[in-house]
Design a protein that fits this description.
mainly alpha, 2 domains, three-stranded mixed sheet, 17 helices, 5 strands, 66% helix
Length: 426
């Protein structure tokens, strides 16, 4: 009998027929911008502010009539939706560049509509930089989800891993006065939590969804108890680590707009810049990644060619938990500066939606996470420039975007074939 060989094409993602849902969603979004924001929108001017006061190179403000701007953008969005429809009729995937342009224009229209007549205008550097910072836990949680599901383990416990990382980084960072040690211990703690998930799912074949839910509930209960019974009694010595200093990269941090947004950040942001391309490269360009995808697509075939399915799943899930722990540290010592009860706020579950929307591809998952990071910024910013919008409506925007994005744009996506299925060696 000839030896079965694993080739790169065996376990690649299957391209599915494009769905009309995304095109319809784009068309409806274009109509909303055209009529609600443009033709029947707010009267007044919008000021787009492109430079931060700290920048050495100052770009001029861009002032434009709100109704005219949103009307023009609405027409362009409808044209892009028409182009997407043509691709669908040709049975081709809508190009990612078209989706990105559509999203950016729709966001610009929304920001402009909200900031019509506001004296501070649309502070682009503030919005973009905070979008990136707030998206870091989602991006890293999404990377953890990819690493788990690509080898066949559904990781519902991302929420608990983020919360564990946030708690441990804050406490250890405060007690040791060393934020880097807090970050490292956060990654180790979340990796240990992932080991529990991996052991129960792989060795004892416990239902992966149930394990994830139970771990989330367990971590929420423990951290809430410790926060109330321990941290609150002496928060200055137990829960006040502060945040990493910003590191400005010489020369390129002075580039207008993108310099302050991308190259004047804390270490957690720069680590994300390394992790995302590294994971993409390992998954799709190395033998190690090929074996991982083989285990997630067809574990029996992988076992036949000598790949240890259980060991591969265990270590990928564990390393995924370590990445999620870094995401939890980004919540505290990378942003807020202290731990709060349930401060992950459902971001672990949004990360799962981001993984689906990004089709288990690190770059697409990152772009999807940035969208949700923007919605979190929007909750704060919209109340400042447009106080007439009800706060409850703004609060539910991230979850509404989650539903619309997954239902309207995800289309028919295929998870790794063996995801969620225990493997029993015959």
């Amino acid at each position: 009998m000839s030896k079965l060989e694993v080739t790169p094409g065996m376990f690649s993602q299957v391209e599915l027929k494009p769905s009309l849902k995304s095109t319809i969603t784009m068309a409806i979004s274009g109509l909303v911008v055209l009529f609600a924001f443009g033709i029947f929108g707010k009267a007044g001017d919008i000021a787009f502010v492109w430079s931060d006061k700290r920048e050495s190179i100052q770009l001029p403000h861009w002032v434009v009539n709100s109704m005219l701007f949103c009307t023009v953008v609405g027409v362009i969005l409808l044209l892009l939706a028409a182009v997407a429809f043509v691709f669908t009729r040709m049975n081709k995937k809508t190009p990612i560049w078209l989706v990105i342009i559509f999203g950016l224009l729709a966001i610009m229209a929304l920001l402009g509509w909200l900031a019509t007549g506001a004296p501070q205008g649309v502070q682009m550097v503030f919005i973009l930089s905070n979008t990136l910072v707030l998206a870091i836990p989602l991006i890293l949680g999404g990377m953890a989800g990819i690493m788990s599901e690509r080898v066949g383990v559904v990781n519902i416990a991302i929420e608990g891993q983020l919360l564990t990382g946030a708690f441990v980084s804050s406490v250890v960072g405060t007690m040791t006065h060393n934020l880097y040690l807090g970050m490292i211990t956060a990654m180790i703690a979340s990796a240990l939590l992932s080991m529990v998930l991996a052991s129960l799912a792989i060795k004892y074949l416990v239902d992966q969804i149930i394990i994830g839910v139970l771990l989330n509930v367990l971590v929420i209960g423990i951290t809430n108890f410790l926060h109330s019974a321990w941290l609150n009694n002496d928060s200055s010595h137990l829960n006040f680590p502060g945040t990493f200093d910003r590191i400005a990269i010489p020369f390129i941090s002075d580039i207008p707009v993108i310099g302050q947004v991308l190259f004047n950040n804390r270490i957690t942001v720069y680590l994300m810049f390394l992790i995302v391309p590294a994971l993409w490269y390992v998954l799709f360009k190395t033998k190690l990644g090929l074996r991982a995808r083989a285990v997630g697509e067809h574990p029996l075939a992988a076992d036949t060619v000598g790949i240890n399915v259980g060991k591969t799943r265990f270590w990928w899930v564990t390393l995924g938990g370590m990445v999620a722990g870094l995401g939890g540290a980004a919540l505290t010592i990378g942003n807020v500066g202290s731990f709060g009860r349930e401060m992950s706020g459902g971001q672990g579950f949004i990360a799962l939606a981001v993984v689906i929307l990004g089709r288990w591809q690190p770059v697409y998952v990152t772009l999807s996470a940035l969208l949700f990071g923007f919605t979190i910024v929007l909750r704060v910013w919209a109340n400042q420039v447009s106080p007439g919008v009800p706060f409850d409506i703004i609060t539910m925007v991230p979850y509404l975007v989650t539903l619309v994005a997954v239902a309207g744009f995800a289309g028919k996506v295929r998870a790794p074939a063996a995801s969620g299925q225990p493997y029993i060696k015959g």
